[in-house]
């Protein structure tokens, strides 16, 4: 199997259909290694990392799209907030991807309330500056074969908490939410890199497909709202 035949990846021409006439011109990414990109190569799959792939697909529709990726491996949400929000605002993005909490949830010291507050502050500040914001429910890294068996139950519970709370936040704040935690492949050990903490190129390909489909749903809903608001429309 390769990306072209993988049933969980984009079909030929699907990206252009999903993103047709998208309005965005400046795309910024905030987060940790998930957006910086540390995925191992997999034969038959693109080596372009997830956030870079999103930008490339957006540029296929709007070649003049400006893109800034601020992601740095190992950061917790408080560090993402402290170091990346200001430059993201200075960039003047109209589309932003905010990913965080995975490094917070990995140890047993995970403080879910604090992570929620920090993610919420980043999201609402970017929205207040005029950006559409995307959020992520991560693949559940507790299924990685490199994670010790004794660590799995606690880690799985924390990753579920992070995912559920981020999804609830996304619903409340109106973000474009990409939910990978419940994806059929989230429990597939072949989706993870040998370091035990990151996905591989197939996971990025699948994440790209799910991200573009979530964006496509938002664009379709926005178009429907505009159509229903036109005077005289029946």
- Strand order, main sheet: write it out: 2-1-3-4-5
> Element order, helices and strands?
HEHHEHEHHEHEH
Q: Cα distance, first to last residue?
A: 48 Å
Beta-strand proportion: 5-15%
Oligomer: single chain
Number of helices: 8
Number of strands: 5
Helix content: 40-55%
Major β-sheet, in short?
Answer: 5 strands, parallel
The dominant shape is globular
Uncertain segments: none
Gyration radius, in Å: 18 Å
The structure class reads alpha/beta
Mean pLDDT: 94
Structural write-up:
This protein has 234 residues and is an alpha/beta fold. The protein has eight helices and five strands; from the N terminus they run H-E-H-H-E-H-E-H-H-E-H-E-H. Strands 2-1-3-4-5 form a five-stranded parallel β-sheet, sandwiched between helices. The longest helix is centred in the last third of the chain and has 29 residues, at 201-229. The protein is globular, with a radius of gyration of 18 Å. The mean pLDDT is 94.
Features:
alpha/beta, 234 residues, single chain, 8 helices
Helix and strand arrangement:
Blueprint: H1 14-19, E1 26-30, H2 33-36, H3 50-61, E2 66-69, H4 77-91, E3 95-98, H5 102-105, H6 112-128, E4 132-137, H7 152-173, E5 176-179, H8 201-229
Parallel strand pairs: 1-2, 1-3, 3-4, 4-5
Helix pairs in contact: 3-8, 4-6, 6-7
